[in-house]
Amino acid sequence: MPGMSHARAVALMVLVTLLWSGAGVVSRHLEAARGFEVTFWRSAFNALALLVALPLLRGADLWRSLREGGRALWLSGLCWSVMFTAFMFALTLTSVANVLVTMAIGPLITALFARVFLQHQLPARTWGAIAVAGAGIAWMFGAELQTGAAAGMGVALAVPLAAAVNFTVLQHVSHGSADPDEALGGEAAATPDMLPAVLIGALLSALVTLPLAWPLQASSHDLMLLAGLGVFQLALPCLLVVGLTAVLPAPEIALLGLLEVLFGVLWAWVGAGEVPGPATLSGGLLVLGALVGNELLALAGRHRAGPAR
To answer: What is this structure's pTM?
Structure first.
């Protein structure tokens, strides 16, 4: 992906958010699986898909990467496991809109981490887009917070925190040292392959939630839906987003990731009857406007700088 144009990378990131956004509506059509069992099966099917895909993509290098990946690989894997576990469990505690709106603070956290830990100088347009999106999120958050929703939204808060750490680590590895200690001096290590981190996250999530999910009660209908989530809503888009960190800066990935909020709320509305309130709709329009405005300003800037590659 390093040779991919910015426009194609943005389009691929939009596809990623479309795939991610299906979890909420699918979870509303489960028959028997509840709580941690939903998380276990989704993570387990994700791990199975990755155990098939990664050896095809990497061959014997996959196992070498797992042995020699270092702390960055395992830190990223831990972040993926938190994201996988907290997101699906939060959906069992509160509405899709509440979960996704809580997750939407991710760009603010990611931008802060990139500025503090990676010394990124963010353009004014990105800060402006984050501010507008943040206003929309705050508006939705205040309106959607209901009695009994606090626990689910608290669990959901772990997702943007882990995602911000993860995107920062992936960007650090893509553009610099694989080991945080390398920044203090010494010879830089070879850049590790970070795709296996997604597998580590899936395995950790499945192992941690299996005891909490027992006894398993999912029907065959549930297993089919959860298998689809594991493969197409997790494995495929997560592999894509790891590659996109070599093309798009972490704050832009997180900002584009806000589309998951809009898509997810829409699917839950159309496919599961979870009607969002007026504040969710108006706040969502602010978020969408911030995304479109940021990308249009970026495109105009690249055109002024010279012809696109």
So the answer is: 0.77
